[in-house]
């Protein structure tokens, strides 16, 4: 028996939201991946001295949740061409982050999405991503 994956292309206004709690373990893994040993991200004392409740979640780790939304909306035939995102505030490790992407335009396979990250109803960041069809290397 052969199963076929069927995918319906998104329509303008389609959106996906993905929520995840950002854990200390993931923070440690991202430190290993990025090599970033900045005090706000790996040292609770320094983070608290800076006025945060706990270590700050790596901004790019939080933003990576958006890739889940984009993948679910655009499907396997698209890749990120570019994105821009503005981070408005730090979020402490242990917080739940809600990532959202909404399709705002589509032309010739090029998809443009509005992006947002929120935690406890507070905006963390906004931005835009452009996805394009995958082409052979």
Describe the structure in brief:
The protein has a single domain (15-133), classed as Hotdog Thioesterase (Thiol Ester Dehydrase, Chain A, Roll). 27% of the residues lie in helices and 37% in strands.
Instruction: Provide a count of the helices.
Output: 4
Whole-number count of domains: 1
How far the N terminus sits from the C terminus, by CA atoms, comes to: 32 Å
Q: What integer is the average pLDDT?
A: 93
Instruction: Give the topology string: H per helix, E per strand.
Output: EHHHHEEEE
Instruction: Return the structural class.
Output: alpha+beta
> What is the CATH superfamily?
Hotdog Thioesterase
Instruction: Let me know the number of strands.
Output: 5
Largest sheet: 5 strands, antiparallel
How would you describe what is shown here?
By secondary structure, the protein is of the alpha+beta class. The chain has a single domain, classed as Roll (Thiol Ester Dehydrase, Chain A). The chain contains four helices and five strands; from the N terminus they run βααααββββ. It has a five-stranded antiparallel beta sheet, with helices on one face. It is elongated, with a radius of gyration of 17 Å. 25% of the residues are buried. The model has no long low-confidence stretch (mean pLDDT 93).
